[in-house]
Amino acid sequence: MAMILILDDRATNRSIFARLASVIEDNVSVEVFGDPHDALEWLEGNRVDLVITDFKMPGMDGAEFTRRFRALPGGAAAPVLVVTAHDDRSFRVRALDAGATDFLQSPIDHFELVTRARNLLALGRSGGGMAEPRPGPLVNPVPAPLPVQGAEGLARILDSLPAQVSATDREGRCIYANAALAATLGARPDELVGAALTSLFGTTRGERSRAADLAVLATGTSLPPYREAGAGGELLTTKAPLRDQTGEVTAVVTTSIPLGAIPLGPEPDR
């Protein structure tokens, strides 16, 4: 059974994250905290498989919390996902420097949070969350690599998802499609590469998708989830910018899941 710790000073966020965490996989146990000191005290005597923490909190930010957690016995093994609403690169650097495994900016795409958390749990179980703890505080701990590496490994991960995932370049051409999307369209993934959105989805959906892509390309920010009609029923779709190594947005990643595929369970008691 996976144990997930949620830390956020805002009650609304704690409730949302806890509900999402409860559906990451079967038999998940969730502990929620609003104060970093309370969370660290609990962690001194309890094992955890994944930590999801806010960055900006009164009294102690997510970087300092992560640093202290890593110094606890057993704290080096569990992946840490840091979430923040602030678009400040220094937050990301500080969190990763303190030992965070991944970083996510809100507003949160619920499907992305669940997917990242599921992958981080798998990473932790593979022994790649962090190295074994050493005496004293850890300095710049580096996660071990995933068992699947490079483009081939990433493609295998994306093809294992039940979501329809694609990427389009600035001209609106498909540059990637995963197995779920290809199966929905009755084609192989490689057959979709190079096609325009209207060729993939038809005129109405294709033009709407292209307009949404242009909004992402213009602003450099993700779009809130929206509903749309797709093959097989209604979908919940999100779009996010894909950046190159210089930070320039070069493409748009689209993720669509059947509406209601991530049901929210009851809020856990504290």
UniProtKB/TrEMBL annotation:
A Pfam family annotated for this UniProt entry: PAS_4
UniProtKB keywords: Phosphoprotein
KW Phosphoprotein (keyword) present: yes
CDD domains, per database record: PAS (cd00130), REC_RpfG-like (cd17551)
The organism's place on the tree of life at top rank: Bacteria
Example of a GO biological process term: phosphorelay signal transduction system
Coiled coil (residue ranges): none
InterPro entries documented for this protein: Bact_response_regulator, CheY-like_superfamily, PAS, PAS-like_dom_sf, PAS_4, Sig_transdc_resp-reg_receiver
Sequence ranges assigned to domain PAS in this UniProt record: 150-194
Protein's UniProt name: Response regulator
